[in-house]
Amino acid sequence: MAAKALSFVVGDYVVYPKHGVGRVIELQSQEIAGAKLELYVLRFEKERMTLRVPTNKAESVGMRKLSSNVTMNEALATLKGKPKIKRTMWSRRAQEYEAKINSGDLVSIAEVVRDLFRAEDQPEQSYSERQIFEAACSRLARELAAMEQVDEPTAQEKILDILRKAAAIYNK
């Protein structure tokens, strides 16, 4: 059974694509509609949310362990790149950004953060741009914080620092 390859234990940090970084707080057995189900109980502190994921569905919904250092370094390197601003309608771009954030892929999330970052000397963002930027930045920061065992604001400051340095290079 392929689902058993993806096993998490209580206390593990995991990434659930639509919600970001959570922690396995317990493994439960429940009987639902006459079938016995094994469930991972995940706690997402930031959203104050608890999620139950059947163990046999964890892989198909994209639940994964925290990224490797290699992937995190690739994501941080992505932040240092030149922002790519597409000239398509905002609604289409917003959908693409949301899809990248919900994919759970760290490098894709870093691309959204990089592309929507605005330095102090740049024009103001629209409300919806700001919302998507903050969602992506928070998602990236939570995974970085869990990996480096720091709090989210510290991780977020590290990300913003990288972005400010890159902006200083590309916005001359």
UniProtKB/TrEMBL annotation:
This is CarD family transcriptional regulator. It comes from the Bacteria. It comes from Sphingomonas quercus. PANTHER family: RNA POLYMERASE-BINDING TRANSCRIPTION FACTOR CARD, TRANSCRIPTION FACTOR YDEB-RELATED. InterPro entries: CarD-like/TRCF_RID (IPR003711), CarD-like_regulator (IPR052531), CarD_C (IPR048792). The lineage of its organism: Bacteria, Pseudomonadati, Pseudomonadota, Alphaproteobacteria, Sphingomonadales. Residues 7-117 form the CarD-like/TRCF RNAP-interacting domain.
